[in-house]
């Protein structure tokens, strides 16, 4: 499943107004862990498309967004519900762990 790249504007206007559980993948270009994470999330988006929306944001050159979300390392997975961050994982996260969070937050 395709995961759309969005910018900070779209994050504020679309993602944070979403009633569904939203997972945002913050990533850096040419990062092996980020590429691995992306493959995991594409697979999850496919399996859980009824349950969760998944987006990604490249943050290499955007210092502001790093500060706004207090991002220290990539990849970072932030889960939002009704505009509020409800969970985050920093660093590569295995498929099983992401699914466990999705299930917990949507049950």
Short description:
With 107 residues, this protein is of the alpha/beta class. It has helices at residues 8-13, 32-47, 63-68, 95-106, and strands spanning 4-5, 21-27, 52-58, 76-81, 84-90.
Description:
- Strand 4 (76-81) and strand 5 form a beta hairpin.
- Helices cover 37% and strands 27% of the residues.
- It is built from four helices and five strands.
- The chain has helices at 8-13, 32-47, 63-68, 95-106, and strands spanning 4-5, 21-27, 52-58, 76-81, 84-90.
- With 107 residues, the chain is α/β, with parallel strands linked by helices.
Topology, pairings included?
Elements (H helix, E strand, L loop, with lengths): L3 E2 L2 H6 L7 E7 L4 H16 L4 E7 L4 H6 L7 E6 L2 E7 L4 H12 L1
Parallel strand pairs: 1-3, 2-3
Antiparallel strand pairs: 2-4, 4-5
Descriptors for this entry?
single chain; 107 residues; alpha/beta; 5-stranded mixed beta sheet; 4 helices
